[in-house]
Write a structure and sequence with these properties.
4-stranded mixed sheet, DNA methylase adenine-specific domain-containing protein, SAM-dependent_MTases_sf, alpha+beta, about 80 residues
Length: about 80
């Protein structure tokens, strides 16, 4: 995500497939801080199957967010 953050312009859209553990383990704290500080999260999607990636063997989520420095009141969609 650090490289994406460096390359993505302000108001750029990122769609990323991540391990679901990113959001509930200590190792994901830096990632969560970066998202909270620099992004508006539009949606967090979960697949009913085990993962989005074929034969990955672990649970994944899809994140859709826009890079922004501006704090707005926005809604995040959580879906399955």
């Amino acid at each position: 995500m650090f490289l994406i953050d460096c390359l993505l312009k302000d108001k750029g859209l990122v769609i990323s497939v991540l391990p679901s553990s990113t959001f509930y383990t200590n190792s994901g704290n830096g990632y969560k801080h970066l998202l909270k500080k620099n992004y508006e999260i539009y949606a967090i999607l979960e697949n009913n199957g085990s993962s989005f990636s074929v034969d990955s063997g672990f649970k994944e989520i899809m994140l859709i967010a826009k890079k922004t420095q501006k704090i707005n009141n926005y809604k995040t969609f959580f879906g399955k």
